[in-house]
Amino acid sequence: MEKRWTVLEKTDEALVDELVRTINVDPILANLLGQRNVTDFNSAKAFFRPALEDLHDPFLMKDMDIAIGRLNSAIRNGEKIMIYGDYDVDGTTSVALVYSFLRRYYPNLEFYIPDRYKEGYGVSSQGIETAADAGCRLIISLDCGIKAINKVKYAAKFGIDFIVCDHHTPGEHLPEAVACLDPKRPDCPYPFKDLSGCGVGFKFMQAFCRHHGYPEEELYEYLDLVAVSVASDIVSITGENRIMAAFGLLRLNTTPRTGLQSIIRIANMEKREFMLSDIVFKIGPRINAAGRIESGRDAVELLISDDESLAKRMSDNINVHNETRKDLDRLTTQEALEMLNSHPSEREKKSTVLFKPDWHKGVIGIVASRLTDHYYRPTVILTESQGVATGSARSVHGFDLYSAIESCSDLLINFGGHMYAAGLTMSIEHIEQFKERFESYVSRHILPEQLVPQIEIDAEISLKDINSKFFRILKQFMPFGPGNMKPLFVTRRVIDYGTSKVVGKNRDHLKLELIEENSSSIIQGVGFSMGAHIDKVKSGDPFDVVYSIEENVFNGKTSIQIMVKDLRFPH
């Protein structure tokens, strides 16, 4: 599929000059910094040298003082507390953090993760009943609860109070909880709005430390869990998230907790420096697999374990779940593509809505993402669960999926999410009507360019601009993620130096050696799944290339290479 190249607007020249002068960087790097809202020496220092002292005061969050007051009351009165979280990575890391940290100071705790298939997302009646049976007087919900108005009322019938710790967008009304900690509350003055669920749990425990005078250094030991949540939940890597991700990665690379070390082992990642992308593609999916295939409780048990032999057994079991998940993912994606290919009229639409009652609920979100990548349009994948249709939705760049689903809310039993991802349930008889209404909304609101995959390019540069000093500073832009993506560059009119070739078992990858036209600068690169372009590359005609800059270590030698994202040839 052809992609739309968009070169980002250049930073104001005066600001570039100022950054070049004050922090002594190349103008290209100064331009990149300006695009990331780094505008002076102090913001550059905060960007390049994240500091834990720059974390905001947790008591700036609305209701934090009330939440701490209720927690202290529970501890003082010896009440049993349930730590309740969602079954995904953000939820399970949140529970692992709050449960294991609070347990240092108060033992009368238990935790609960709802069953994805029997209870669904968020706070469940069964979870509340379990808390009541266990004699709990307080539930702390993590990564869920901000829309659980009826469930919080239900808990009150059992004499159970709620402290909600969430990061999702609230509805029109808040639940009648003792406290609702959510930086996205319209009335919350907290300066940073994009915390993960685990990040909100961290701030709650930070406030607990400050109230009691406990050393926050003990809490910082849990930043590896926050980094895993930040990477897996795809929140912005700016502000507090950048600080917590940087220090969480440092811990992951030096002294990870026993459970994470065990996952690192089964993912064959023991001899490398971790980046957030490793969490997204290697660690996160394995933690998620527990909740997708078996129980998210297994993931929490692993993350809080100090027993190496137990952690090994549990991580091995979770890895089996991950292999099962991959098989189901492959099969379901194949079936979904076949459904679309057998109905050509479906491919003409601006949206995709597919339903098959026997698809595994644990992989439909992944399948929705794969179909969105394949056909590049807003996609909803539905399956049957407990007599209703339940599903996941994914969007394309720039299109507000949440608003599209909200426009069909009268057909839905429940829905939630944000601009690019959502979950929803409806009665099976409403599927066709939803399909028509959803398509109608998308057709009316989506822009033609939003149906073409976009590559956002940070800057146009020459190959001669790439040198060891340039790359050394570029590496310090890490950790990369939303709000600070790995920079992409375009270089125009490059030609094959004569040694480019196809590689790989199926000869489907490109190994390139390129030189810029009218220049002596040569660089090597790799283009995965681009082997079909070899004839055009070897033709001798100049072409344009979009790439990121990487470090290549081979036989103990380190060199700079480019990782090709797209090629554009003359017509």
UniProtKB/TrEMBL annotation:
Pfam families: DHH, DHHA1, RecJ_OB
Domain DDH: 80-228
Location of the DHHA1 domain: 353-443
GO molecular function, one term: 5'-3' exonuclease activity
Record GO biological process: DNA recombination; DNA repair
Alphabetical list of PANTHER family matching this protein: SINGLE-STRANDED-DNA-SPECIFIC EXONUCLEASE RECJ
Protein name: Single-stranded-DNA-specific exonuclease RecJ
